[in-house]
Amino acid sequence: MPDTAAARTAGWSARSVGELAAAHAAKADLDRRPRPEVTDAIRAAGFARHFVPARFGGAEGSFTDFTRAVAEVAEGDASAAWCASIAATLGRMAAFLPEQGQRTVWADGPDAQVVGALMPGGTAEAVDGGWLVSGKWAYLSGIHGSQFALLCCPVPTADGGREVRFLLVPRAAYTVEETWFTVGMRGTGSDTLALAPTFVPVEHSFAREDLLVGRAQASAAHCHNVPLKSVSGLSFAAPVLGAATGALRSWAAAQAAKRAAVPAGPRISGGTDASAELTLARAAGELDAARLLLERAAADADLGRPEPALAARAQRDHAFAVDLLLDSVNRLARSAGTRAQSEAEDFQRYWRDANAAAGHVVLQWEPAARGWAEQRLAGV
User: Fold this and answer.
1) Which candidate among 123, 204, 223, 235 keeps its CA 20 to 30 Å from the CA of 72?
2) Number of domains in the chain
3) Rounded to whole angstroms, how far apart are CA atoms 145 and 150?
4) What is the pLDDT of residues 210-244, one digit of tens each?
5) How far apart are the C-alpha atoms of 362 and 93, rounded to whole Å?
6) Quick one: 239 and 210 in the same domain?
7) Domain of 284: which CATH number?
8) What order do you get walking across the sheet with 130-140 strand by strand?
9) pLDDT digits (tens, 9 = 90+) for 181-205
10) 98: domain CATH number?
């Protein structure tokens, strides 16, 4: 595998990253972390720099391109796509840091690998100029190849209260504990970060509220000033979209091979051929509907539409799209036959990964549905 600079010159695309990831998926599954070759290719393809400010060499890219690229990688391997998504998403989050913090992250270029935890954890003690931070944060996808981490932590304030902030720490400050033993998405390496007491200056932090409302203090780029609710689900739904697409392709290829093995002759009305056709049509329709919902949500984010009603609709659509994708992949699984469950088959990996990824808290249907309904009924 060439180094990052050479790989970028070679023109790595989302599709080529997906093909490479597919070739290494079984080993990543076994190792419970992405292969170094795949991590390098993700970086070379520009995922880490996709949302990075242009003044640091980043692309300040669109959510539409991001969603499509992540889904394309996931057609090869959803775990690799999840790591690619995190690389881009955390690059966007780093743009919420003050100028000094941003310069620290991108001192050596726009491809710095940042990981992060969205849920608060750890403890912080106020000291002159910042905080002493320590603790553990679980489920940091891609942590083994990271250079920085943005950790969500409640910190003490001058008035005696607490404020939840994201705190930037360098790779040298933390260790990794292997805790990622799962049924699906095994190759994401989502292990636990352990941090001994580490000083974090104020200039290397930002308030979680800024991320939630889309208020970047040191960037005017549109992609850094979008409410989190409008786009967060895209980061986790896009790998499910790609996994479902891969599952459909794998299932259809197996069905075509079965048909080719049967001598030509009159077809039996209502037999297994007809059942397979109905399964294929329904599963493909569900997948197409989910893709359209996600692309509409991404397009709205790219148009800069911050209305609360649209943000609530986006969150609803992220969750509903994933429900459709699960219906699609599970429909295929029920009719795929015993062979599809073999560890030697790609189908079972797509199936496991789609169901595992759909468990992310951001993709849960009930809170998304209730949030949209409240907005809708308030506007009547």
Assistant:
1) 223
2) 3
3) 14
4) 999 999 988 888 899 999 999 999 999 999 999 99
5) 16
6) no
7) 1.20.140.10
8) 123-127, 130-140, 191-201, 174-177
9) 999 999 999 999 999 999 999 999 9
10) 1.10.540.10
Q: Residue 283 — φ and ψ, nearest 5°?
A: -65, -40
Show Cβ contacts of residue 335 under 8 Å, excluding neighbours closer than 6 positions: 275, 276, 279
Whether 221 is covered by a domain: the verdict is no
Nearest residue to 73 via CA among 9, 151, 18: 18
DSSP 266: P
**Among 158, 85, 112, 128, residue whose Cα is nearest residue 360:** 85
Answer yes or no: is 317 within a domain.
yes
DSSP per residue over 182-235, as a string? -SS-GGG--EEEEEEEEEEEGGGEEEHHHHHHT--TT---GGGSS-HHHHHHHH
Question: Average of pLDDT values for 106-112?
Answer: 97
Residue 335 has pLDDT above 70, yes or no: yes
Rounded-to-integer distance, Cα 350 and Cα 330, Å: 10
Please tell me whether residues 46 and 174 are part of one structural domain: no
- 191 and 147 in a single domain? The answer is yes
CA angle at 232 for the pair 228 and 235, rounded to the nearest 5°:
150
Q: Which of 110, 116, 125 is nearest to 46 (CA)?
A: 110
Domain assignment present for residue 286? The answer is yes
CA distance 273 to 255: 9
* Residue 304 resides in a domain: yes
CA distances to 85, 182, 231, 268, 329 from 27, rounded to whole Å, are 20, 15, 31, 42, 23
Please check whether residues 255 and 367 belong to one and the same domain: yes
Six-digit token string for 118:
């969205």
Tell me: pLDDT of 9 over 60. Answer: no
Average pLDDT of the residues in 318-347: 93
